[in-house]
Design brief:
Elements: H1 16-22, E1 33-39, E2 42-47, E3 50-57, E4 63-70, E5 74-80, E6 89-95, E7 102-106, H2 112-124
Antiparallel strand pairs: 1-2, 2-3, 3-4, 5-6, 6-7
């Protein structure tokens, strides 16, 4: 995994067997997962080619949205950390061709710096 080794922080690991089931039919031949963060039910998957945002929807979680963003399409990103009164962090990713950023709310304790490093590693290489 090289580029992403050691970036995963506390409290947000993803079970490899769960990830394999979720990504069955999503990854292309030869694409390698480098890092994955779980935020409540949603998952951020950083591969060697793209960022995959898995958004589990509804009460039962049977509806799932897979958003695939090639690193070359990310024009900028922002991570706002939690504060004293605002306990949530926020991630914004601007994608070329879209007016509004992809916005995700991250719960307190999520490794926002790890997510930021993983994004920077994908975008800036």
């Amino acid at each position: 995994m090289g580029l992403f080794d050691g970036l995963l922080g506390h409290g947000s690991s993803v079970d490899p067997s769960d990830l394999a089931k979720r990504l069955d039919g999503v990854l292309i031949e030869g694409e390698q997962v480098g890092l994955a963060f779980k935020v409540i039910r949603d998952v951020f998957v950083f591969t060697d080619k793209r960022l995959i945002l898995i958004d589990v929807q509804g009460i039962t979680g049977s509806k799932v949205d897979y958003m695939s963003v090639p690193y070359r399409a990310i024009t900028r990103f922002s991570v706002e950390t939690a504060g004293t009164f605002d306990l949530d962090s926020e991630l914004k990713i601007w994608v070329s061709g879209a007016h509004e950023p992809v916005t995700k709310t991250l719960k307190k304790g999520t490794d926002v710096r790890g997510i930021q490093r993983a994004l920077a590693a994908g975008v800036l290489r």
